[in-house]
Amino acid sequence: NVLYYLAMFHMHYLHHTLKKELSALYVNTMLRGFAAGMMGLFTPLYFYKLGFSVSAILFFLVVSYLIFAIFVIPGAHFTVRMGHEKTIAWSTPLLLVYFLILYYLPGNHALFLLAALVLGVHNGIYWVAYHSEFASFADHNSVGEEIGYLKVFITIISVIAPALAGIFIESWGFPMLFFISTILIVLSVIPVLATPEKWTSGTVSSFRILQMFKAPKLRKDLVGMLATGEDSIASTVWPIY
After folding, report:
1. 3-state SS class at 1
2. Is the pTM of the predicted complex or chain greater than 0.85?
3. CA of 58: how far to CAs of 33, 96, 127, 223, 235, in Å?
4. What is the widest separation between alpha-carbon atoms in the chain?
5. Quick check: 22 and 134 in contact, CB under 8 A?
6. What is the percent of the chain where pLDDT is above 90?
7. How many C-alpha atoms does 191 have within 13 Å on its Cβ side?
């Protein structure tokens, strides 16, 4: 209920009404963000507690992001072929598999890199569809405002979620955290699938996608986006420190 009313917050404070597709994406983002907020801060601690070194945990991060980068192109193909919402929905089971791997990791450390692989594949597919959906249904006269309010919601969640996660871990251990996060991820798909999507399947050129990285007009953005790597350090190294 708290997440629902938080999602409806825009009805009172945005200067316009969001399209239903974007409202659904807001709810999806917040439910998924709550699960990620609970898992994200404590996952490196979970690895560390299992005996993995800081170097191994950073290597996990590198592998995950490399796979993420590689699967951006398949993610674009899936999105153009199936549509934004179906791609978001079909990528979600991969995140559930990731949680399942983490659950069984204490008994089999060989699953460590498999977890990084699955997480990277999920991110590559999910985020292409997510950003495509946002770009398609955002009000282009107010896109900054819409992104801004979404960031506010995520920031609030990023404060609440780890606090609750700490309580769950202290009271019931990591398995309870995995269970609750799984429930939230499953629920996050419902609002996206509840909005019928009219989609005409198409194709996209992998070569054209790669050419975009070399486009002079995008070069400054590409360099600037490297600074977002700070988030990875904050979410991985800082919790252990």
Report:
1. coil
2. no
3. 22, 22, 22, 22, 11
4. 53
5. yes
6. 22
7. 20
